[in-house]
């Protein structure tokens, strides 16, 4: 648990937030919970002077959230909602295409969409249960498709960060013979999704140009009230618990941060060369990302 001094320091740093450009930030799952909290904090700390895109299913909630944002003073800043059920891959393709058509650069991509229903018998039209689709496949597709815009931002010396919220350090070894997680027990299924996210956010190991941008990754499942955000630190606090994300500009490092703000490095990480190769191939096939 962090001390009150740490929280005070974070608040002081947050007060210094300043961009020399109008940042573009996409929040997927931003109509409730953690995603909403991060979107609201981002709007607050940029004083509304950002292009904020909330992606989700609940238009009424999104419009209420956007109405609460500070009114921007920059004429180029804009706050908007894109209605999309990202559990369906065809919808993800549509939303990433829409974003790329409007924005050559993307500075922040925050992924927190999820589902609490653990019924794996109900499948989407892609043949994937909704929890797996939301926790992994849709996030993978969003990153993969939007990578060129993130890379463009990074090449222009702007922030280019991806955040995926999903319980780092609590995964488990994955079964390479059951990457679809059809035979896995409930606990194995949940732990495998955590490991899938770890491997997903470790894209830089491939040396693929499309993923040569900075990753800033808090992966924690606390359902609290985020957040404080500034260019070099993202943090969230709930009932005295604090987790934060230091960033390394121009690096290809994947930060794995625990619920108390500590960098857990490779603790609870089960991605090796064999599993990464197998999962990459499997995911490319499922998402049709050629």
TrEMBL record:
<dbReference type="InterPro" id="IPR002347">
    <property type="entry name" value="SDR_fam"/>
</dbReference>
<dbReference type="GO" id="GO:0016491">
    <property type="term" value="F:oxidoreductase activity"/>
</dbReference>
<dbReference type="InterPro" id="IPR036291">
    <property type="entry name" value="NAD(P)-bd_dom_sf"/>
</dbReference>
<dbReference type="InterPro" id="IPR052228">
    <property type="entry name" value="Sec_Metab_Biosynth_Oxidored"/>
</dbReference>
<protein>
    <submittedName>
        <fullName>NAD(P)-binding protein</fullName>
    </submittedName>
</protein>
<keyword id="KW-0560">Oxidoreductase</keyword>
<dbReference type="Pfam" id="PF00106">
    <property type="entry name" value="adh_short"/>
</dbReference>
